[in-house]
Amino acid sequence: MDFTLQELEPILSDNLNGRVRIEKVEGFPRGSSRETRFVTYSVDGGETREMVLRSDFPAGSTDPNPLDLEYFIYDRLGQADVPTARTLFWEADPARTDRPFYAREKIDGDWNIAHFSDPDPAYDSLRIAIAKEHIGALARVHAIDWRRIGFGERLPVPRDEADAAPCALRHARDQFLSLATEPIPLLLEAVEWLTDKAPPAPRLCLCKGTNGYGEEVFRDGRIVALSDWEEVTIGDPAADFAFMQGFLGDIVRDGRKLWGLEPALDHYAELTGIRIVPEAVQYYQLIRALRLAVMSHNSATSLRRPDAHIRQGWTGTEVLHLSKHILASAMGLVPPIPGPRFAQLNTSVDMG
Amino acid sequence: MIHPSAIEIIRNIEATLVDIVEPAVQTTTARSALATIGHLLRHVALRIEDEGQLLTDDIAALKLLLNDLAVYIASTGDTARAREIGTAMSAAEPPAGRYPSIQILATQAAALRAVMQDILAYLQTQRDARRGEADYLAARAAIRAYLTADVLMEARLIHPAFEDKGPRR
Predict the structure, then answer these.
(1) Residues A234-252: what's their mean pLDDT?
(2) CA distances from A282 to A155, A158, A240 (A)
(3) pLDDT, tens digit, for every residue of B65-83?
(4) What is the pLDDT of residues A163-175, one digit of tens each?
(5) Which chain A residue has its CA at the smallest distance from B116's CA?
(6) How would you write chain A as a 3-class SS string?
(7) Engineered SS bond to A259: which of A136, A251, B135, B157, CB 3.0-4.6 Å?
(8) Cα–Cα separations (whole angstroms), residue A141 to B106, B107, B136
(9) Confidence band, pLDDT 50/70/90 cuts, at residue A4
(10) Residue A317 and residue B47 in contact, taking contact as beta carbons nearer than 8 Å
C-alpha cells in the first residue's frame, strides 16, 4: 500500500458511503512514530474536505503500542469534552491494504505559531498565552471520566494513586523485555531505581503523554485540536508536564520570572485544584526517558528491513542513546548532558 | 582497494548531498530526509573508524564482569546458575578461524550482554534478602560500573555525529 490517489479512492468510497474523488494526498514531514498523510477530497461532488490518515511506517511503527490502540484512543475521545479530531473509519481489510490505517477529520489550523520562537521580548505575552491555553486544555483532559469512557479496557490501570508510577514502570519493562533485540541492562537498573523513588499521584487521570509546541493544532491562538495521543496513559497528571516541549521554558525579564515550570504548575492548580510539585515533573521526565528508550529500541528493529524510514534510523541511534544517557545521569553514573543538547532533538528543517 | 577508504567515500557522499542534491530538493519531506541522512552518514563513518575496537573492549569487559559474577553466584551456593554463566559465555565465542568482522563481534557482545542482563534481573530478585551483604553490593556495583562505561563508550559514536550539526528531521 503506497497510499496513492488511485489506491485510496475506492477504499474511501466504501468507508464514506459515497463516490469519493481525491484532489491530493500530502505527507506530513515531521512525524517520527508513524506516518501521517493529509487527504483533500470530496464525496458525491460535494464540498471539498480534508482528512488525516495514520499508518505505521512500511517497516513498522516506532511506537510499540499498536496502531489500533491509537485509533481506539481517538475514537473514545469523541465521547469526551476535549478539542480533538473525530475518527472517520478504521481500515484493515488485507484484501485492500497490507498496511492497516485509520482516518480522522483534519481540523483547520497549524502546529506552528507565528513568532512563538522569536526571542524578542515583545512576544513573551504570546508565549505565555499559548502555554496557558495549552494547560487549560490539559486540565480538561485530566477531568475526563476515563473509567466511563472505557480507557481502562486497553490501557494499564494503576491499582491506586501510589501505584501510578510503578504501573508505568512495569508496563515499560514488559514492553522492553518483549522486544527480541539488543539487551540493554541499563533499563532494568533504571526501572529498579525509579521504582524506589516513585511518588504517589495526587489523582489518577487520563494523561495525554506528548505535549507542547509541535504536538497540537492551533488557530488564532486557540487550541482547536489536541493531537499526538499515541502515548496516552492513566496515571499521575505530573506526567503531562514532563514532556511539554517549548511551553515551559523560563521567561525572565529584569530579574523577574514571568513564566516557567513553577508558574505553569501554579496556573494548573488554579484551574484544577490539583497541586503538582516540580519534583514529580522531574521524576516523570525520567519515566519519559525510559519510555523513549523502549520506543527507540523498537525503532532500531525496523532497520532490519531496507524499506525502514530514514527517521527510524535516527530514532534507533541518537534518540536511544540520549534516553539511556538521561537515565544513567539521573542514577549518578555519568555526567548530565546540557539542556540545549536535548532541545536539538526537536529541530526540523521547517521550523521558523 | 585501499584508497579511497570507506570513510573518504562517506564524507564525499555527505558533501555531495549538501552541495548538489540539497539545493535541488523541492519538498519539505525530502529536505527533512536529507537532513537525517547527513547525521546518519557521520554516525556510520564513526562506527567504521571506532566500532571494532569498542566492541573488542566491550567483550573483554563483559567477560571479566561475567567471570566475577559467576564466582559471586557460586559463593552463594547457586552453583548451577554459576555453571550456566560459563556455558553461555562459551556458546557466545565466535567460530574459530574466522575474521572477526564487526558483525561477529557485535553478535558476541550482544550474547554476553544478554547473559549479564539475565544475571542483573536475577540479582534484583535477591535484593530484599541480600541488601545488607557486602558481596551482593559489590556485585551490583560492578554491574553499574560496566553500565557507566557502556554509556560513555556509546557516546563516542553519537555525539560527534549529531551534536550541533543541524536539524534532525
Answers:
(1) 93
(2) 23, 20, 11
(3) 999 999 999 999 999 999 9
(4) 999 999 999 999 9
(5) A185
(6) CCCCHHHHHHHHHHHHCCCEEEEEEEECCCCCCCEEEEEEEEECCCCCEEEEEEECCCCCCCCCCCHHHHHHHHHHHCCCCCCCCCEEEEECCCCCCCCCEEEEECCCCECCCCCCCCCCHHHHHHHHHHHHHHHHHHHHHHCCCHHHHCHHHCCCCCCCHHHHHHHHHHHHHHHHHHCCCCCCHHHHHHHHHHHHCCCCCCCCEEECCCEECCCEEEECCEEEEECCCCCCEEECCCHHHHCEECCCCCEEECCEEEECHHHHHHHHHHHHCCCCCHHHHHHHHHHHHHHHHHHHHHHHHHCCCCCCCHHHHHHHHHHHHHHHHHHHHHCCCCCCCCHHHHHHHHCCCCCC
(7) A251
(8) 45, 46, 46
(9) very high
(10) no
CB contact under 8 A, B152 and A334: yes
Residue A242 cell numbers, joined: 514532563
Ranges in chain B, pLDDT < 50: none
The answer to whether B151 and A332 are in contact (CB under 8 A) is no
Q: Which of B110, B120, B167 sits opposite A189 (nearest CB)?
A: B120
Q: Cell 551483604 appears where?
A: B133
Region A266-289: mean pLDDT is: 97
Residue B47 and residue B161 in contact, taking contact as beta carbons nearer than 8 Å: no
Using pLDDT thresholds of 50, 70 and 90, give the confidence band for residue A305.
Answer: confident
User: Above 80 in pLDDT, residue A352?
Assistant: no
Residue type, A351: M
Q: Tell me what pLDDT residue A33 has.
A: 82
**Predicted confidence (pLDDT) at residue A36 exceeds the cutoff of 70:** yes
Whether A333 sits inside 8 A of B148 (CB atoms) is: yes
With contact defined as beta carbons under 8 Å apart, do A232 and A74 qualify?
no
Cell, residue A251: 521567561
Quote the minimal CA–CA distance from A145 to chain B in Å: 37
Other CB atoms within 10 A of residue A136 CB: 15
Q: Residues 84..113 of B with a Cβ closer than 8 Å to A: which?
A: 110, 113
Backbone conformation region of residue A336, classed left if phi is above 0, alpha if psi is from -120 to 50, else beta: beta
Nearest to B169 by CA among A166, A310, A178: A310
Task: State how far residue A47 is from chain B, nearest Cα, in angstroms.
Answer: 28
Give the C-alpha separation, B125 to B102, whole Å: 34
Strands A211-212 and A244-245 come out as: parallel
pTM of the model: 0.91
